[in-house]
């Protein structure tokens, strides 16, 4: 049986392994919080407007992040039909037990969860790596969000166009030559060297402006 704390801890492990980002983790924590506040009702309905307001994001950002959580096997969701019927979310790691109390409500301590396949496989790889001792650690590449690239470029105060960088590698399937990209931040730094002194696209793009996801 899994407690609320165990669910939170398992999500942190997925984030540490790069399977989910800080933004996706934030959304998952909020959905888990709502499920808990609703006495572990699963599935449950939650307004898109409220989620966007609480997390400070727009609809497109919410769509991208919940799709990532769905791909990671953490949630399922159904779009709402109208304002009177908000979107429906299911925390897929929670499986209701058949044991109920006298009021017909499942207690939190009768809930269990199953780790996502990606987490289970990666955990197995890590355990085997520890046994070998000399084996290199497994690095899982996660495609960055456009806003993450923009934030990193602003942090480094470079002239790299985040949109151009994203579109370029998106068109190549995030491959460098014949190899899968391992570190997108290193790729950004390489672009810095490539465009040093050329003021690439500086006239049409201003990386000092806050990025908004549309």
SSE topology:
Blueprint lengths: L3 H13 L5 H16 L6 E3 L1 H8 L3 H13 L3 E4 L8 E5 L3 E2 L14 E2 L4 H16 L13 H11 L5 H10 L3 E2 L2 E2 L3 H12 L19
Antiparallel strand pairs: 1-3, 2-3, 4-5, 6-7
Helix pairs in contact: 1-2, 2-4, 6-7
Describe it.
This is Transcriptional regulator. The protein has 214 residues and is mostly helical. It folds into two domains: 4-129, Arc Repressor Mutant, subunit A (Orthogonal Bundle), CATH 1.10.10; 141-214, no CATH class. It contains eight helices and seven strands, in the order ααβααββββαααββα. A hairpin with a 2-residue loop joins β6 (175-176) and β7. α1 (4-16) runs antiparallel to α2 and α6 crosses α7 (162-171). It starts with a helix and ends in a 19-residue tail after the last helix.
Compact summary:
This protein has helices at 4-16, 22-37, 48-55, 59-71, 117-132, 146-156, 162-171, 184-195; strands at residues 44-46, 75-78, 87-91, 95-96, 111-112, 175-176, 179-180.
Which key phrases capture this entry?
214 residues, 3-stranded antiparallel sheet, 2 domains, 7 strands, 46% helix, mainly alpha, single chain, Arc Repressor Mutant, subunit A
CATH architecture of the largest domain: Orthogonal Bundle
Tally of individual domains: 2
- Helix vs. strand class: mainly alpha
What's the end-to-end separation, in Å? 41 Å
Strand percent estimate: 5-15%
Radius of gyration over C-alpha positions, nearest whole angstrom: 21 Å
For this entry, what is the oligomeric state of its chains? single chain
Largest sheet entry: 3 strands, antiparallel
Sheet with the most strands: spatial strand order? 1-3-2
* CATH domain topology of the largest domain: Arc Repressor Mutant, subunit A
* Low-pLDDT ranges: 95-119, 200-204
Which CATH class of the largest domain? Mainly Alpha
Instruction: Please state the average pLDDT score.
Output: 76
Write down how many β-strands occur, each being a DSSP E stretch of 2 or more residues. 7
Write down the overall geometry: globular
Number of helices: 8
Element-by-element helix/strand order: HHEHHEEEEHHHEEH
Helix content: 40-55%
């Amino acid at each position: 049986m899994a407690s609320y704390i165990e669910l939170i801890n398992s999500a942190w492990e997925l984030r540490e392994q790069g399977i989910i980002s800080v933004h996706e983790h934030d959304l998952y924590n909020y959905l888990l919080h709502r499920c808990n506040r609703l006495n572990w009702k699963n599935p449950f309905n939650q307004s898109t407007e409220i989620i966007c307001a609480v997390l400070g994001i727009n609809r497109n950002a919410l769509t991208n992040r919940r799709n990532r959580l769905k791909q990671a096997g953490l949630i399922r969701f159904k779009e709402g039909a109208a304002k009177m019927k908000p979107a429906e979310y299911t925390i897929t790691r929670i499986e209701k037990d058949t044991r109920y109390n006298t009021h017909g409500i499942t207690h939190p301590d009768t809930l269990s969860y199953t780790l996502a396949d990606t987490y289970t496989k990666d955990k197995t790889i890590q355990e085997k790596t520890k046994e070998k001792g000399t084996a290199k650690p497994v690095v899982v590449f996660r495609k960055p969000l456009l806003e993450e690239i923009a934030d990193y470029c602003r942090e480094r105060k470079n002239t790299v166009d985040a949109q151009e960088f994203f579109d370029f590698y998106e068109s190549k399937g995030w491959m460098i030559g014949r190899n899968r990209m391992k570190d997108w931040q290193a790729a950004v730094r390489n672009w810095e060297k490539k465009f040093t002194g050329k003021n690439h696209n500086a006239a049409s793009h201003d990386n000092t402006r806050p990025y908004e996801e549309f």
